[in-house]
Amino acid sequence: MISLDKLGLEKVYVQAKRWQGSLGRPDLQAFYGALAGQRAKRGVFITTSSFTQQALEFANSVEGMVLIDGSRLVNLMIDHEVGVTSKTIHMPKVDGDYFDEEA
Fold it and tell me: How many other C-beta atoms can be found within 10 angstroms of the C-beta atom of residue 3?
């Protein structure tokens, strides 16, 4: 659970699964039911794998549910430098104009 404000009035519930196969609609329906049980308006479902088409359609049919699959998770990690390291590589290039002879 993540509180969006200091008083904890706005909450986002998060479920994360390290998964091999695709997650289906029943997984998201169970999560949505848990959100309703907590009277939560927002939820984020994260997986290291992917979602089935039926799961994607279900998430699009309800309010306040965000899905993050493995590919998007990796991109977010890279963008925000979480769990990754980056290195800048300098590639020198010869300036051809420097060696041009003047007539």
Answer: 11
> What residues of the chain score a pLDDT lower than 50?
none
Q: How many CB atoms lie within 10 A of CB 86?
A: 6
83 Cβ contact partners less than 8 Å away, ≥ 6 residues apart:
77
> What is the residue type of 47?
T
Instruction: Mark residue 40 as left, alpha or beta (left: phi above 0; alpha: psi -120 to 50; beta: remaining).
Output: beta
Structural domains in the chain, sorted by start: 2-84 (3.40.1350.10)
Find the length of the chain: 103
Please tell me the distance from the alpha carbon of residue 14 to that of residue 38, in angstroms, as a whole number.
Answer: 12
pLDDT tens-place string over residues 75-87: 999 999 899 988 8
